[in-house]
Amino acid sequence: MSLEQLYQQIEHGENVEAPNGWLQGRTIFGGLVAGVLLHKATVTINDAQKKLLSCSITFVGPIEEKAFKLTAEILRQGKSVTTLEVRLWQDDAVQSILLASFGSQRESRIQVSQEPQVPNFPEIDQLNIVPKYLPFPECVKNFQLAWTEGQYPMSGSQEPDFLGMCHFDPELHPQRKMILPDVLTLMDVWPPGVLSMFRKPAPASTLTWQVTFLHPLESQLHDWFKYQVKTEFAEHGYATEHAFLWDQQNRLIAIARQTVTVFT
Description:
The protein is mainly β. It is built from 3 helices and 13 strands, in the order H-E-E-E-H-E-E-E-E-E-E-H-E-E-E-E. It has helices spanning about 5-10, 30-45, 180-185, and strands at about 15, 25, 25-30, 50-60, 70-75, 80-90, 95-105, 145-150, 160-170, 205-215, 225-235, 240-245, 250-260. The protein has an 11-stranded antiparallel sheet. The chain has a two-stranded antiparallel ribbon with strand order 2-3. Helix 1 (about 5-10) packs across helix 2 (about 30-45) and helix 2 (about 30-45) packs antiparallel against helix 3. The chain starts with a helix and ends with a strand.
């Protein structure tokens, strides 16, 4: 099942068949879950004048590779901003929740541009793409990734964090115009920054993920994106980090903040 077919299911009802090939351990890949929730939110809003400002996802429990249900509720619909909640249900239990705010543009004299400077990345033809045979989760095979600075997960690094470039694998996903659910799915493929400090495989999972969107998305599905993650604090089994995603034109598309549970 392609992502487009998955989105079409969401547009036609509450019940959705889970696609194959997206497992991350015992659960469906969180990035795909976030994309599914966001697409349900977009379909529910159904207002081209209101753009996604930000969303927050809580991953309540593991989602099995089987049918699930999506429900949406508009919490408030104002002149400029609409806020809604989307829930993913499986086996009569809530397994993930998204809160999203959509807003229309307004006249304002306040204009500030203090975006972080995009780091130096190599040219695309110089990338060392991660081989498919490495023991990454099944879901990673849907993408092509290239670490450009920092270490792979479980490498025993003294420092966390890394830079990298990513896109959907053209052999598995046909070219088309990209939408914001695709961005969430792509951005979440990167592991938490602290995983490079692990000396051996151990569980780690996202607990909460907040994403703010800045510049409009003007990309195709096969376009490369640039990614940077920075860990601010890690102790007592939890880590807090933030990440940036730039498009091929070095426009900052999204900023994410994540709380990660660490079992090592």
